[in-house]
Design brief:
The protein is an alpha/beta fold and about 200 residues long. About 25% of the residues lie in helices and about 20% in strands. It has helices at about 15-25, 75-85, 110-120, 150-165, and strands spanning about 1-5, 30-35, 55-60, 65-70, 90-100, 125-130, 170-175. Helix 1 (about 15-25) crosses helix 4 and helix 2 runs parallel beside helix 3 (about 110-120). The chain is globular and about 35 Å long.
């Protein structure tokens, strides 16, 4: 199985690495990481039309290599499919995002934007996000003091069902509650209303 793994939190996010580890181990999959060089939360499905993009082969904390892209999560999907893999993967997985994507603001989510782009090119696509109550962690880069292994195992459980049962949809938006275990029931539901209020900070 060929998996393209992307995110919007950046290539050094330990959520990305935890998911790669569990996907590789439990699905015996070939996982290729193509992720933004820097934090790209809130960019939605934006693509880079007027600036050159650089792809850098990057050594990860587990000793393997991924590809860092100087662009958006959507850029990562496009370059992953057409430049790095040179084919459409079995599934594009975006995450694990630091922070939930539960409201109508998902259109601004880089995590969801990457999944939408994967589906647009004919791949099955899944966006996965972990609820985080500590807001100061949501837009950090790099390693964070969060257990991503259990959420990664939940993602794999959903991926197995998605691929085996051929869910009738192009994109699954999976949100994992803080403190969830592998025994936490999985529910199919609908988006909530707005999660955030709009504010402007003048300086």
């Amino acid at each position: 199985m060929e998996i393209l793994l992307v995110n919007d939190d950046g290539i050094y996010s330990n959520g990305l690495l935890a998911l790669k580890s569990v996907l590789t181990e439990e699905l015996d999959a070939k996982v290729t990481i193509v992720a933004p060089t820097n934090q790209q939360s809130g960019v939605g499905r934006a693509i880079s039309l007027f600036v050159p993009l650089r792809i850098t082969k990057t050594r990860l904390a587990d000793g393997d290599y991924g590809y860092a892209v100087s662009g958006t999560p959507t850029d990562c999907v496009i370059l992953g499919i057409y430049k790095i893999l040179k084919k459409v993967p079995d599934i594009v997985i975006s995450g694990i995002n630091v922070g939930e994507n539960l409201g109508t603001e998902i259109t601004t989510s880089g995590t969801l934007g990457a999944a939408f782009e994967g589906a647009h090119h004919g791949a099955k696509a899944l966006a996965c996000s972990l609820q985080i109550s500590k807001d100061h962690l949501k837009f950090k880069e790099g390693e964070m003091p969060i257990d991503f292994i259990t959420p990664a195992k939940i993602v794999v459980k959903v991926v197995k069902k998605y691929l085996d049962q051929d869910f009738p949809c192009d994109v699954i938006n999976l949100n994992i509650p803080e403190g969830a275990t592998e025994k936490t029931p999985i529910e199919i539901t609908r988006l909530g209303s707005r999660m955030y209020t709009t504010c402007i900070e003048e300086r």
